Amino acid sequence: MEKELVILMSGGMDSVLAYYYAVKEKGYKPEDILALWFDIGQPYARKEEQVIDRLPFPVEKIRIDLIRDEFDNVPGKEDGKQIIPGRNLIFATIAGSFGKRIWLMALDGERHKFAKERDKSEKFFRDTTDLLTYVFNISREETIIETPFENMTKAEVIAWALENDVPEEIIHLTSTCYDGEIRNCGECPSCFKRWVALTVNGLEEEFEVDPKSLISKGWHKDYIETLAEALAKKDFSHYSEKRCRETLTAVGKL
């Protein structure tokens, strides 16, 4: 039976909270939602599945043998090396078989044309909607892929969740780290963004390495300096103003 909404679920903070956003903010009934998680062989799949199995709502699992050492396509956790090209296109195409509206998470400042992840850009959402509408037109008039959080930062998503009585333990249950074993490595870009969003909302979490201890080193330092320069020049073509301000506030530079 076709669902009104298919949520592409990763076990991460954004997609898990999107389920609550759909019910509490958009008025979807749980029975009209399909939460869908993919195991494509990503190194952190086991951690994601542990989250999925503990969520208080059902999540369907689909396994695809896509990532293997012999294919030389295993992502790393370093900045820029965690990207799996085309992943979201694969997910969206499969999701189109189950529902006419698909939610894929992309936040404020992540949809611009300079993004490393092309399958989060505005062009991707627009062109994929056109493609899926064309492909599935036999069974329905339109198939839409969108993000509910296009104008919200990760910190704002957490703030919304706290204001709308989403249990704090659900927020902490989620996993967004690129490390294959450690729950929160604290070193990868995903951990840093998570730490910023939590810090801005007055929440704390344990990390293997304290992200704040890294702000004057390596790519963390370069990233923070880039945000500070963008804010000073009011150049938000790459990073949004909200993202700049939240990050610099979290690291004590604003």
Describe it for me?
This protein is of the alpha/beta class. The protein is built from nine helices and five strands, in the order βαβαβαβαβααααα. Strands 3-2-1-4-5 form a five-stranded parallel beta sheet, with helices on both faces. It is globular. The mean pLDDT is 92.
Please render the helix and strand layout as text.
Layout (H helix, E strand, L loop, with lengths): L4 E5 L3 H12 L8 E7 L5 H10 L5 E4 L23 H9 L5 E3 L18 H14 L8 E3 L7 H10 L4 H6 L15 H12 L17 H16 L7 H10 L4
Parallel strand pairs: 1-2, 1-4, 2-3, 4-5
Helix pairs in contact: 1-5, 5-7, 7-9, 8-9
In the sheet with the most strands, the strands line up as 3-2-1-4-5
Total E-strand runs: 5
SSE order, one letter for each helix or strand: EHEHEHEHEHHHHH
Low-pLDDT ranges = none
Main β-sheet: number of strands, strand sense, barrel status? 5 strands, parallel
Number of helices: 9
Helical coverage, percent range: 25-40%
Structural class: alpha/beta
Gyration radius over CA: 18 Å
Average pLDDT metric: 92
Determine the strand fraction and express it as a percent band.
Answer: 5-15%
Distance between the termini: 51 Å
Shape: globular
List keywords for this structure.
alpha/beta, 39% helix, 254 residues, 5-stranded parallel β-sheet, 5 strands
Could you give a quick summary of the protein structure above?
The chain is α/β, with parallel strands linked by helices and 254 residues long.
